[in-house]
Amino acid sequence: MEQLWEYIKGMFVAPLSVEESMSQLLYLLSYDPQSPMTLAGGLFLLMFLVFGVGYLAVRGVAWLRTFYVTAFSLYFYYKLSGLYLLLLIAVALSDYTIGWCVAHHRRKGCSGSGWVALSVIINVSILTYFKAGNMVVGWLQSIYDSGVLEFEALVIPAGVSFFVFQSIAYVVDISRGKIEPLRRFTDYLFLLSFFPKMFLGPLVKASEFIPQIKASRLSVSRDDLGRAVTLIVGGLFKYAIIAKSLGVLFVVPAFAGQLGDGGGVAIMAILGFTLQIYCDFSGYSDLAVGVALLLGFRLPDNFNAPYKSATITEFWRRWHISLSTWLRDYLYISLGGNRRGAVRTYLNLIITMLLGGLWHGVGLTFLAWGALHGVALALHKLWMRIVPWAKATGEEMNLLLRLPSTILTFVVVAFGWLLFTAKDMAMVERVLSSIAYNTSFSDFIGLVESSMPALVIMALGYVMHFMPRRVDMAVQGAVTRVGFIGQWILVVAMIWGVMQCGAMLATIAAEGASLPMYAAF
Amino acid sequence: MKERDYMLRGFVLTLAVVVGVALFALIPPFELFGMHFAKVSLLEDIVGEEQVVEYSADIERLEHELATLEPCIEEVEAEQVEPLPSIRKEWIYEREGEAVRRVPRSEEVMPDMSLPIVAIEDFDTLEVSRFDRFVDKLASGEAARIAFLGDSFVEGDILTSDLRSELQQIFGGRGVGFVACDIPFATVRRTIRRTSSGWSAYSVMKPKSAPEELRDKFFVSGYLARGGAGARTQWSVTDAFETLDSVGRARIILLSEADSRVELSLSDTLRYEVELEADSRLREIYVEAPITDLAIKVVEGDVLCYGVSLEGDSGVMIDNFSVRSNNGHAIFGTGAHINRQIDELLGYDLVVLQYGLNIMQAERRNYSKYRDQLRDMIAYAERCFPNAAIMVMGVSDRWVRDTQGEGYKPIGTVDALSQYQRAAADSCGAAFWNTAEAMAALGGMPKFVANGWAAKDYTHINFRGGRALAEALAAAIRKPVYDLLAEREEMVRVEEERKAREAWAREQARIASIEAQMAAVAAIVDSLDMGEWSVVEQNGVEE
């Protein structure tokens, strides 16, 4: 008890001089590559609070609000990625200018396609530099392994893919006449850098987002607040508890063969990774959507229970929706989409997915992953053409058809995740052969003994995922109705759980990844 | 109807959440359903994260700094070094008695010769190397002090606690050695309990968090604490090891650049107030008393406290200076003048540099850059601790996950890094001990994990592994001491034998000379005509 009192005293009457506190604070506020700021961190929580005071004051005046949020977003990006901030501003400046040039040409009746090409070249070069650069560094390192020259890996700017994609989309939309170029540079910078979606999306469409930038007043309804709290609490649970603990406790050791080398372990590891990557990515996306909603901004949903899909086409309408929409609108359609005959359509689908695969990383496994999805999409399109009773989504099917379709789709997608996470094709081969020739029931019994907590977490995650949508809605409604105190308890309890989980995992894994998995792409 | 706006409520909720989360710091750790729930704190989550700072060596600046340094201790005579009175304050509560110098016997020091001993390689080219001097001190029963600079590998007194215990039991000595006053995050050491409050503590790894004027004042301990009135630290000894409970002496190292007053207390009952006049030099408060709990409290002024050394009257002292995620370069961030002054006060005979775990990478065999850094570290340490031998401890064995799915495999670059570390020691005339080789002799990392001596990450050893490794290192230290002692004992024996032989020869000579004299006397008697005399005598006898 006495110690507790000492501790409390120490907390509140810390005899820091003003100068000392300032230097501590300055240190905390400057960029530190070891601890980039994310939406799930404690520092963000505090900063968001400070940010909120100013936001409430300026929210009624659109230009002032944009200015304020942009400034905070740029700072957020600096805390996340340091001086790559300048790259972000440069991209914004370049495409803002190009956008005006394109619009100017359109008014004169020209297409301005040269300018669009310039924008695409600039943006794709940036992306390629960082994506392919590390591959080159890897080669050089292997060549000069014990030689005199040393090469350091490039640090990829956080969220570079996301702002580059959105910037391309902006210019293309102008050239297609869908939107008018933004008048103020800060508005465009805001569009690119808006902090909740900055890091991992969702990608926003300029045509949907610009009206919100210009809106004179943004408001949050009671339902919005309830939804935001649900998204944040659920997002934290998925991202910081399920995904993180599943990775450390189960997926990593299972793939490393520490839990046995039977096929059963491999199957469970794939199932685990399938859940982990969904929870990691969608959890962080939910956080982003929830935080934006607190500010009155509506971001598009990025995930919609993807493993419920009954067809691969449906999967891509439910998984990373904003990216697949982007790929459809700006890659698939630019390649000609489905307007150039059936064969070209299939080919375009496959090319789109191959490029999508390569975007994740230059390597055979990612190529195979893209090919799998491209071919599966093309096959499904073919199936739809030749089978009269074929359906595009599960909702149109009856249960008898839907259940096997869903299972088949899940198997294809899960196999895709194996390709996605494997280090090389040899590992894929090894995992598959152990599943084919070396699976026994005792593998599962062994896992029940060795990894019970992880299995419980996994079961919980899948049960949550396969809940009907009305359960989700009911939960959201309940969170809305419990009112302030209830919401407070929910959020605080979840944060406590997240911190406990972090503390427990830290004792198991020496270096826990503090960033979302998708940050690597 | 216009709908009510809930945006304000959203932010009020955020405020309430922040307050709620801040209160987590009040929930003590507890166990429930066999699960351990730690104490979590938002503030520590934000501030307490480790940042790695890259320092670089500037030996030129160091030379300059040391050249302009006023001596902390005025040398009165070569053998008798007494601190200036203003530097050292004393509180002699109960004299422990004169230091007893006890020369150990070789059989006490002899390591277990049946086990393989990985020897310490000494690259010093001096006629009597600094490492030899250290060995000599141990063999002569003189006090010897070791500074053990390391990373998280020895955090919490892993390895060093057992090394200390073993060496103290052989060579004498008590106490845990140097302990910081306060450090900016929570740690546990089973060899000492420390409760502190009211200090602002800083780490050399996060110099930016320290005020400008303190950044050149770090000691190799890595931490310093500044406190105004009310700041207090209590150190309590533990009985985790035989030689730790109740020590006779404590030496508190601090800096008070303004006039200040501190109060010391023993077991919360005996108090003693010390006036500290403003001085730019470090100073020592020397306490002599049976100590189980010692506390220091700042009553007035502004004090920079480095820590306390709890020690016995003689023998071996080992100071554990572990700084998490330090690759060794943090030594360049410590103040050379501070290190030198503390060296003058405490007197180091051996400085161990245990680093490299954070540097090592799989697939990387070229560590020439690190070797050069390590050379600078050795040079820096040599200049800060001019009387001490420097010993580089090689990187420990480490295994990594096999991506082919076969469990764990050796990282494969331990030898490469060890050789670069050895090369650095070689070119600087330092000593080197190959930790990985010693671990291999004990069965390597898989054996450590199987024995429960190391964490499942195949990287970090735990206390039990630390004990095994400490025994190996102690054996490596005992071996040369034993050799020296055996040699000396042999010399003594030979000398005694020679003396005995001489004495016997002298005796023989004496006997011979007596016999000779007697013979001479007999001859003289014979030469005189004394026949009657002898008849008379014969007769007399017969009567």
What would your notes on this structure say?
Chain A is mainly α and 521 residues long. Chain A folds into 4 domains: 2-66, no CATH class; 83-214, no CATH class; 223-310 and 420-520, no CATH class; 311-396, no CATH class. Chain A contains 22 helices and no strands. Chain A is globular, with a radius of gyration of 24 Å. Mean pLDDT of chain A is 86; it is low at 10-16. With 543 residues, chain B is α+β, with helices and mostly antiparallel strands. Chain B folds into 2 domains: 59-494, Rossmann fold (3-Layer(aba) Sandwich), CATH 3.40.50; 495-525. In chain B, 35% of the residues lie in helices and 22% in strands.
Keyword list:
heterodimer; A: 521 residues; mainly alpha; 4 domains; 22 helices; B: 543 residues; alpha+beta; Rossmann fold; 2 domains; 6-stranded mixed beta sheet; 13 helices; 22 strands; 35% helix
- Low-pLDDT segments, ≥5 res of chain A: 10-16
User: Pairing-aware structural class of the strands and helices of chain A?
Assistant: mainly alpha
State the secondary-structure class of chain B. Answer: alpha+beta
Chain pair forming the biggest interface: A-B, 80 and 69 residues
Oligomer: heterodimer
How large a portion of the residues of chain A is in β-strands, by DSSP E? Answer: under 5%
Radius of gyration of chain B: 32 Å
Please tell me the CATH architecture of the largest domain in chain B by its name: 3-Layer(aba) Sandwich
- Strand tally of chain A: 0
Order of SSEs of chain A: HHHHHHHHHHHHHHHHHHHHHH
Low-confidence stretches of chain B: 48-53, 71-85
